[in-house]
Amino acid sequence: MTRNLARYTTLLLLVWSVYTFAQAPAAGTSAAPAAPAAQPAQPAVNPASIGPSKIGIIDMQAAIAANNEGRRDLEALQKKFEPRQTQLQNLNKEIEDLRNQLKTQGDKLNEETRANLVKQIETKNKTLQRDGEDAQNDYQQQQNEIAQRILGKLGPVIDKYAKENGFSLILDASNPWPQSPLLWAGQQINITQTIITTYNAQSGVPAPPAATKPSTAANRPATAPAKPATPTPKQ
Question: pLDDT tens across 55-110, in order?
């Protein structure tokens, strides 16, 4: 579903209950039910006698970006944007060259030539800023679409695993406290890799070639987030 992407995404708190509640009896019956037979008194339940709830954590950002399908699609997205990245880098170099020229030759240029050079720098800088923002926004939108799609498939996998293994609660550990409500958790309850392995087996998507590293960083002129933020599941 951090950094730039966190501007329009929120933290994901996943809660799966392992208990199923019986539905209430349907209303509108024609006759009142007979009085139930007397039942022996039931002993009160001692809370201390109930076993501890089983709780797990999962790094949803890693689960989305590190499974085979996520790696494949995010790498393809990065390659798609490489030409735009190169274009922005070249334009940035042009601006730096013009600035260096102005710095080293400015006092030797006549007023008209110097003004023209300053105008070129301003024009190219505005173009770089506009094109850079457009490229970044396009990348982030498509990156989030990939994350949202994979999250929709991960949900049932986590739900099934939680129920089959008796979990009462699973929390997203993508971000440290105070960015998330999770203050601390031991790694022995981290199910991230198990979910990734289970998802890979279910999706049938082969692992990328060994020489290919997972690419989860956004292409942008400056710095980029290390991995996509966890998108908020659609209601």
Answer: 999 999 999 999 999 999 999 999 999 999 999 999 999 999 999 999 998 888 89
Evaluate whether 59 touches 154 at the Cβ level (below 8 Å): no
Provide the residue type at 36 as one letter. Answer: P
SS3 153: helix
Residue 73 identity (one-letter amino acid):
D
SS3 (DSSP) at 193: helix
**Residue pair 26/182 in contact by the 8 Å Cβ criterion:** no
What CA–CA distance (Å, rounded) separates 150 from 128?
A: 33
Backbone angles phi, psi at 209, to 5 degrees: -55, 150
Q: Are 216 and 227 in contact (CB under 8 A)?
A: yes
| Beta strands 55-58 and 169-172, pairing class | parallel
**Helix (H), strand (E) at residue 172:** strand 169-172
Structure tokens at 160: 């099934």
Q: What digits encode the pLDDT tens for the residues 157-205? A: 999 999 999 999 999 999 888 888 888 899 999 999 999 999 999 999 9
Domain boundaries, the chain: 10-16+53-235
